[in-house]
Structure formats: structure tokens, C-alpha cells
Design brief:
The protein has one domain. It is elongated, with a radius of gyration of 17 Å. The chain contains six helices and no strands. By secondary structure, the chain is mainly α. Helix 2 packs across helix 3 (about 50-60).
Length: about 150
């Protein structure tokens, strides 16, 4: 531990968490902004026209939009709260996991062929869920040790 009571790994994990989750926020924003130039490199290599991907995202029901936003933005908040040594980081990541499971569940049940039903998409979905679970475990342990309060 350093002289502020923060173990070195809190900084490392907190900063990596913030960077990773902020990219999720960026991706969410660019998708919501219907930025074709951002989406094109993620769609066209799979034979999906960017216009079709935009139409797919535009077809999301409002409750799905809410789950997706909750999943993304509470993970960003969780990373910030972790760096601020708040025990509420744990709860933010729990909410994020709930939102992401709901959003990923819907897109798995209603896939955009060639876009959300590819091995890469499933792999990213799994990676995001595993990383959120690891952040939940880490925050719980840091709360139990009194690092997050």
C-alpha cells in the first residue's frame, strides 16, 4: 500500500477499467449517433452493409436502449467510483452486468445476420461479461478489505 491507503493494484485495475469501459461508452455513443464511418470497418468485412447495421440498431425497442445504456454507463461510473474508493463501484458493476445481460440476450435472440451472430461478436460479448464479473469480484474484495468504503 502507498501512503494514501490505496494499494498499487487499485490504481492499475481502476485505470484499466476506466479505459476499457470508456471505450464501451464511445462505442455506444458512436452507434447512437449513427456514425457510418465508425461502424463501416465493423460491418463490411462481414458482408453487412453499414446501412443495414444502422437500421438494425434503430429497430431496438426503447427498453433495450435503456438496458444497453445502463450496462455501458454504469460500468464507466463503476470504474470512476473504484478510483474514488467508493464501495458503490460494486453496485454500479452489478447494474452494468444486469443491463448488459439483458441487451446481449436480446441481440442473441434477435441477431443481425453476419453482424451480431458471428464468432467475433459472441467472443466480445463473452469477454465483456467476464470482465464485468471480474470487476464485481474485485470491488467486493476491496470493500471487504476496507479499501473501498
Amino acid at each position: 500500500m502507498n501512503n494514501t491507503g490505496r494499494p498499487w493494484h487499485l490504481w492499475l485495475i481502476g485505470i484499466l477499467s476506466l479505459l476499457w469501459n470508456s471505450y464501451g461508452g464511445y462505442d455506444y455513443y458512436m452507434t447512437q449517433a449513427e456514425n457510418a464511418e465508425y461502424l463501416r470497418p465493423m460491418t463490411e468485412p462481414y458482408g453487412v452493409a453499414v446501412e443495414d447495421a444502422l437500421a438494425y440498431f434503430a429497430s431496438y425497442p426503447i427498453w433495450l436502449e435503456v438496458l444497453w445504456a445502463l450496462g455501458v454507463w454504469t460500468s464507466v461510473a463503476g470504474a470512476v467510483l473504484m478510483l474514488l474508493r467508493s464501495k458503490f463501484a460494486y453496485y454500479a458493476f452489478i447494474i452494468s452486468l444486469i443491463g448488459l445481460i439483458g441487451a446481449f440476450g436480446w441481440s442473441t435472440a434477435n441477431p443481425q445476420p453476419g453482424l451480431t451472430d458471428t464468432p467475433v461478436a459472441y467472443g466480445m460479448t463473452g469477454l465483456v461479461c467476464v470482465l464485468i464479473i471480474l470487476q464485481i469480484i474485485y470491488c467486493r474484495r476491496m470493500t471487504q478489505r476496507g479499501v473501498l468504503r
